[in-house]
Amino acid sequence: MVAIALLAGALSVQWLPVLPSRLWITILLGAALLLSWRIPPLRWLFIVLLGFGWAAWRGGMAMQERLPADWEGQDFEVQGRVIGLAQSRADATSFLFQIERAARNGQAVPWHGLARISWYGEPPAELVPCSRWQLQLRLRRPRGMVNPGGTDSERSALARDIAAVGYVRDDSSNQRQSATAWCMDRLRASLASDIQQRVSDTHDATLLRAFTIGDTRGLDTQDWDVARANGVSHLIAISGFHVGVAAVFGAWLCWTFYWAWPSLALYWPRPQAQATAALSWAFAYAGVAGFGMPTVRTVLMIATVALARCSRRATGGANILALALIAILLVDPLAVLEAGFWLSFVGVGFLILCLETKGRGLRAFLHELTVGQIVMTVALLPLTLWFFGEASLVGALSNLVAVPFVSFVIVPFALLGLLLLMICPPLATPILWLSAWLAHAQWWLLEQTAHWPGAHWYLPTMQPWALMLATLGAVWLFMPRGVPLRALGVLLFLPLLWPIQHVPDKGAFQAWVLDVGQGLSVLVRTRDHALVYDAGARYPSQFDLGEAVVIPSLHALGIDSLDMLMVSHADNDHAGGAPAVAAAFPMARRYAGEPDRMQLPAEQCLAGQQWEWDGVRFRVLSPDGMGAASTANDRSCVLLVEGRGGRLLLTGDIASDTEPRVAAALGSGPPLVLQVPHHGSRTSSSAPFIKAIEPELAVVSAGWLNRFGHPRPEVLARYAQAGVPVLNTAREGAIQIEFPATAQPFVAARWRRLERRYWRE
């Protein structure tokens, strides 16, 4: 109960839009302490408030450690050290950098913290772990895109203590100063390099590095897609079971010494020695694996068992889990912000509470293994959908094969190979070859099952109450025999499986201007149809906004089919994500303003094309096909969406030369919402254009602190002078606009404000 009370307090903080002051936290804790002292039954209130106060204080400290807002976008001369393993990409090398000293304009500033840095081009020396550098950095506060179904990178930055993000500026002063003689991450990098050199197949070596030391740098998007389709991501990034294998190895090694020299028991009892050896090996392996959440949780559990064994006390699985939970919350209450925390503790908790032990021996082991996978798949289904928006229906079968094979075959061989690398490298090569061959065979099987029906199962964004009901249903479903009506637990999954959706009426439509940074993507939905206009950028780093933002948003909004993909023109910030969207929805018809420059086949959009969906009319206003457009921007498809109560004008990147023709083709009609041309560039949104079309609202899609300065101040002044309010995705996140059939258009949601949290700025 102490663990649950502490968790409730720490979790309640994470729903606050603003953190309380330290004075209020102190007052609450003092009042709770007084009440619990005078009224003992209220001591649980004190524990809840203790968790609340500790999490609020820790969250407030993390926010205060961030780069001051007034310094965003400025250059700094810094000194610090590289943390963890640097990741090389096609366009840059990314790494974590602990800034210890910083100066701005030659003057030292009182700020330091952990920063996520990108180095474009080739660094002058290798960014080895723990090396010290002097760098010129341009920094800003952590800020991410906020969309339906999207990941919250600002929350992740808070949980990982990242105080700034930025990139290295070209400067002759950028140089490595020194490197420490030894550190754990240096050992990890060395082991990763040795594995890569000894295994001929690059992909097999990458898998082996991921399975053994948690080094996932070489895994690409397709690899993670295979892992998600099979529900085995926990195995790739080092599961707690791997740490358990290391602990068992330590206990067996200790037993071997006692078998060889029985007299050791006279100096130190064997059970206590085995417990200490198991904990030591588990801790060492967790360090080599990078101390991820599953490994830390397992080490804490093993530490609890070891302590109980050394003190000759018995303890149950539930107590071990509770003590591990208390330890993590006391060390880092912000751990509750990460998916790994919940998947780890909830999964193990379900196994402890719901899995009945059927004796001993191979039959009992196989029973627990098979039933355990079913329990884990069903129990973690609500959380998986909550955090990731998708789940795998083949995950139970895939894990049934992958968990024992990886944990009992691949990992033991690979750990033996790692041990030999450190004590006798020549003997490690054949062991690593065998481990790599086994990993190759396992991955081939996963690639086959990744294409089975149900491998990727998407549901619309769920509500918190649906998550709680589904979790309660899983508990009820797996209660011990004798509990009546256990099968009725399935009914509590229904709000999760069939969520309530608000679909437009006939003649009405909805629009979402998605937050894709310095780019554009708009989703238009009628009653039974959906259209995507532009799909954001795809960067040389392989980060694809079509895959990372557009597709998850469609799934989160309950749109499982796409009727049309229209790409205004072929510039990367509009067309880069289109191939990913087209691959996810191959039946969608494709139009483009510049089909010859597109990476995928598309029909030419031309003025005069029109169609109607569910009482909503769509008209292409430009280009006219007469060759008048001289630039790619002016060849943008301009689309007008006309409902009964309002209109939406999507303009792409047209400039002022094309605006008069668009205004003339627009005609009169109900109130108009405008997508501001070219992200608010000074060459667009001329005063005559704004006056001619008379929009009720204008929406800009732009990146936060983008290098172009979009939207330009003079453009915003033109809209202000015309009395047109302007919303910017850089400030608001995704913007949802409703176009009812019987009322004027209105802004239904600004995603950055929809669910305000104290870490979201």
Plain-language structure description:
The protein has 761 residues and is an alpha/beta fold. It is built from 26 helices and 24 strands. The protein has an 8-stranded mixed beta sheet with strand order 15-14-13-12-11-10-23-24. It has a 7-stranded mixed beta sheet with strand order 16-17-18-19-20-21-22. Strands 1-2-4-6-5 form a 5-stranded mixed beta barrel. Helix 23 (687-693) links the parallel strand 20 (672-675) and strand 21 (697-700).
What features would you highlight for this structure?
761 residues; alpha/beta; eight-stranded mixed beta sheet; seven-stranded mixed beta sheet; 26 helices
What's the topology here?
Layout: H1 2-13, H2 22-38, H3 43-64, E1 74-88, E2 92-104, E3 107-109, E4 113-120, E5 131-140, H4 153-159, E6 162-168, E7 175-179, H5 184-198, H6 202-213, H7 221-230, H8 233-236, H9 240-260, H10 270-288, H11 293-310, H12 317-331, H13 339-354, H14 362-388, E8 390-391, H15 395-423, H16 425-449, E9 457-458, H17 464-477, H18 494-497, E10 509-513, E11 522-525, E12 530-533, H19 545-556, E13 564-567, H20 572-575, H21 578-584, E14 589-592, E15 603-604, E16 610-613, E17 616-622, E18 638-642, E19 647-650, H22 659-666, E20 672-675, H23 687-693, E21 697-700, H24 713-721, E22 726-728, H25 729-732, E23 735-739, E24 746-750, H26 751-754
Parallel strand pairs: 4-6, 12-13, 13-14, 14-15, 19-20, 20-21, 21-22
Antiparallel strand pairs: 1-2, 1-5, 2-3, 2-4, 5-6, 5-7, 8-9, 10-11, 10-23, 11-12, 16-17, 17-18, 18-19, 23-24
Helix pairs in contact: 1-3, 1-12, 2-3, 5-6, 6-16, 9-10, 9-11, 9-15, 10-11, 11-12, 12-13, 13-14, 14-15, 14-17, 15-16, 19-21, 22-23
